[in-house]
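re: ur question from yesterday

yeah so i grabbed the chain u mentioned. its 228 aa long if i counted rite. heres the sequnce exactly as i have it in my notes:
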Amino acid sequence: MSASERVHAALRSRILKGDLRDGQRLVVREIAQTYSVSDLPVREAIRMLQSDGLCVVNRNRGACVTTITPEDIPGAYLLRGEVEALSTRLAGPNLSETDLAKLASMAQDMELLAMQDETEGYVAVNREFHALILARCPYANIRRMVEELTDGHFDYAVIFGVDTRELSRSSSHHNKLVDCLKAGDWHQAGAVSMGRKMEIARTLLIALNRPVPPELYSEAPEAGNDYE
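ran it thru and got these structure tokens back, copy pasting raw so excuse formatting
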């Protein structure tokens, strides 16, 4: 691994974990000192982060961690939801009995972690759960698209932090998804995946005191719905 690849991997990991926050500046000299490299590989790493959609570079501030604005949230999560729903439907027929058993076990683990309010452990299992499903999608370009869209969004630790109910909502989603996959109902599995992304978008918009557009409801919200 080259110096630029090493720095890129380290910065990418820190951004996705939330150690480097939205809008935070990426100062070349500071990064170079942190990783004991010259400025050149740091600049190359920043260009790689730009390609990932994880940072932006402007003339006045230099490189900064990408900020998803409230205006971006509906479209970003609708797009991600559609692509993840597609990848889930395509992955379904390729999941083995061993895969399904592992997914069920991870769903149980997440249910327990949610009850214990163990966000960090939950996030780790959640990533492994979705990575397994995505790995069974037969098309590399769709897998890459899901990964790119995921990288450009809020980390799950941030989402769980804005609403204490998100852990239990997420756990319920995983149980429903496993049930659909076990039943061989790939289309419903995709619908469950899409519904969860819309739920996340609603949670984020409400936390930011922004209106929720009707497109983020799979059906018309009922009276008394938390998202009205």
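noticed a couple things. The beta strands are 55-58, 62-65. also The first strand starts at residue 55 and ends at 58.
anyway ttyl
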